[in-house]
Write a structure and sequence with these properties.
About 25% of the residues lie in helices and about 30% in strands. It has about 120 residues and is an alpha+beta fold. It has a four-stranded antiparallel β-sheet, with helices on one face. The radius of gyration is 15 Å and the shape is elongated.
């Protein structure tokens, strides 16, 4: 089985509702999100790719158009704009375009990671 991944990034703000007033994530704050798209196949297409990395440009365009420098509370509804929900949303978008998609990982900080898989 062959596996590839590619990372993308965007900057956005959000806040999480329903948290105690003392919880910092309840206040508006921003992140540089890093999104990792993971694709897998047991066969390679010519000249030896799972998917040509260049064919993944539409995902970057989607991220920029939908999320970059936006308030995620306004664009991700009706769910909370958590890393987990962003991972699921991006997974579904990618899986519809690239059946080889097996996971999407979302980092809000260098030390955190959320992943959605099939």
């Amino acid at each position: 089985m062959y596996t590839i991944s590619k990372r993308f990034s965007f900057d956005a703000s959000h806040h999480l509702e329903g948290l105690p007033t003392s919880h910092k994530c309840g206040r508006v704050h921003g992140h540089t999100y890093v999104i990792e798209l993971v694709l897998q196949s047991d066969v390679l297409i010519a000249p030896g790719f799972v998917v040509d990395y260049g064919k993944l440009v539409p995902f970057k365009e989607y991220l920029d158009a939908q999320f970059d420098h936006r308030d995620l509370n306004e664009v991700i509804q009706p769910v909370q704009p958590t890393a987990e929900n962003i991972a699921r949303l991006c997974f579904e978008w990618c899986k519809a375009r690239w059946p080889e998609t097996i996971a999407v990982r979302v980092s809000e900080t260098p030390n955190t990671l959320a992943e959605y898989t099939e």
